[in-house]
Predict the structure.
Amino acid sequence: MSSPPDVLVVDDEPQVREIVATYLQLEGFTVRTAADGTEALAELARQRADLVVLDLMLPGVDGLTVLRKLRATGDQVPVIVLSAKGRESERVAGLELGADDYLAKPASPREVAARVRAVLRSSGTAGPETIEVGDLVIDLVGRRATQRGEELDLPPKEFDLLARFASTPGQVHSRGDLLRDVWGSSPDWQDPSTITVHIRRLRRKIEADPAQPLRLVTVYGVGYRFDP
């Protein structure tokens, strides 16, 4: 199985950076982040990305400068500009410097993910469409899952939870992590038992014996892990 495309998300707003990164991870992409232009250039020098989601209004080295430097070195990594600068002049400047697409803030994370997938497809680096784990097949685009050929009845959050686990096999997630990554919430203002209830429901649908789960296992005192 080929590794998922690597996406670098560059934004100085921690909340935007985290939401976009989390949603892309749910869609099956590998995601790195940078908080400013200097960090972005250093990260790309360390390891080239398959695509960059780039804010324009960055402290220090701004987004247009990052894009200009990339293109000046001949790096044709696909770039999607995501910025509060929505005026036509900024859009034109970004596109003329070689951006592949432009999204004005606020943009929904689902739209960002759709644009990422479309740009990667046009550049010949197709994003992951499905995750297959034995008899379990998760269609990330159609947002449906089947097991042994039968479609599972998964409400939106159960699907997002399953996609999150299946895209990070073997990784342990605390309930706080899952509230943040899947619900965009926090244990400070949402009951962590929400996770317990959803895990119980999900096990009833994907486990042969929900009382003795083999795929969605509890790591006592820590959280949950998906074993492929």
